[in-house]
Amino acid sequence: MTTVLFGEALVDDFGTEQVVGGAPFNVARHLAAFMSPQLLITCIGNDKNGAIVHAEFERFAMSEAGLQVDKMEETGRVVVERNAKGHRFVILPGQAYDFINPEQALAAFESVDPSAIYFGTLAQRCPRSRDTLHALLEASNATRYLDLNLRDGQYDERCVFHSLHAADIAKVNEEELQALFGWYFGIAPSAPALSSDEVRAACAALVQMFSLEGLIVTLGHRGSVYFGADGGVVVHRDNPAPPFVIDTVGAGDAFSAIFLLGRMRGWALELTLARANEFAAAICAIPGAVPRDLGFYDKWAARWRAA
User: Fold this and answer.
1) What are the Cα distances from residue 168, in Å, to 3, 18, 143?
2) CB-based burial of residue 22 (10 Å sphere; 0-12 exposed, 13-18 middle, 19+ buried)?
3) Which ranges of the chain does DSSP label H, i.e. alpha helix?
4) What is the pLDDT of residue 86?
5) Average pLDDT, the chain
């Protein structure tokens, strides 16, 4: 069984340094590092940044069956601008991952036995890739995992609405959950804070509204909560904070990777959430979304085998 991931592989361009990223690519690399079968369906350009992305496929020994190369479009790039408040990220329009070819994608998809399909919203901003994703979702009964991953100016409510309807499991952070509350329940960000019971009721309503198997809300260092279709709620609170935080880039992607890994390996839901939270916290203690040293994964694999 294989986890299929669809969407962007790109380069964060700091000017003096280019760092490979993209939520689906981050998740795929984590899965590959843990020797979990995965297939990333994406598109890069025939350019320098494309070569950098391709090198990461080789470094993680990932299958290239889903890697498309577009000779006309540039590899996805995010311009990172430094300012007094930190960094500003400019996601460029019209990138190669906006033009994922449906025929090539379906051919790669049909070569594996998918257990889950991971997707987000960024790669749906243009019709070509959005239509390709819909074709993939229609081609399989695999579990559909939506990482909402909203980026300013790169989505609209219609895309979110259809994505949630297409999903079996959806993962959101607290800001994204607030956006859902605003769209579907008319709860403005400026409204008085909801009680714990009111939040639970609203999340349960979202699960029913979109016929979800589960809704995951990540809470940063405070853990995560899983709202199930049966009304059950699983809360994981004892999330160990890292001794220091370098940055939180990629923490959500790390969580998704381990959640999907846990489902693949048959871990109990409570254990899966605990391990996903712990691994995401560890990613916050290193620079970037993915470790530069693959030895980083060894202690986690050994610990989980021992348990």
Assistant:
1) 14, 35, 6
2) buried
3) 23-33, 48-59, 102-109, 127-138, 157-166, 174-185, 196-209, 251-265, 269-283, 296-306
4) 63
5) 93
Q: Which structural domain range is residue 30 located in?
A: 2-306
Query: What is the pLDDT at residue 17?
Result: 86
Q: Which residue has the tokens 């700091």?
A: 14
Residue type, 75: T
Write the DSSP symbol of residue 221.
Answer: G
Distance of CA 300 to CAs 145, 282, 296, 297, Å? Answer: 23, 10, 8, 5
CATH classification of the domain holding 64: 3.40.1190.20
Q: Which token pair is 231?
A: 């009304």
Q: Which of 187, 173, 184, 199 is nearest to 280 (CA)?
A: 173
Residue 59: strand, helix, or coil: helix
DSSP 83-127: ETTEEEEEE-SS-GGGG--HHHHHHHHTTS-EEEEEE-SGGGSSH
pLDDT at 244: 66
Per the structure, the count of domains in the chain is 1
**C-beta of residue 219 within 8 angstroms of C-beta of residue 238:** no
**Three-state secondary structure call for residue 152:** coil
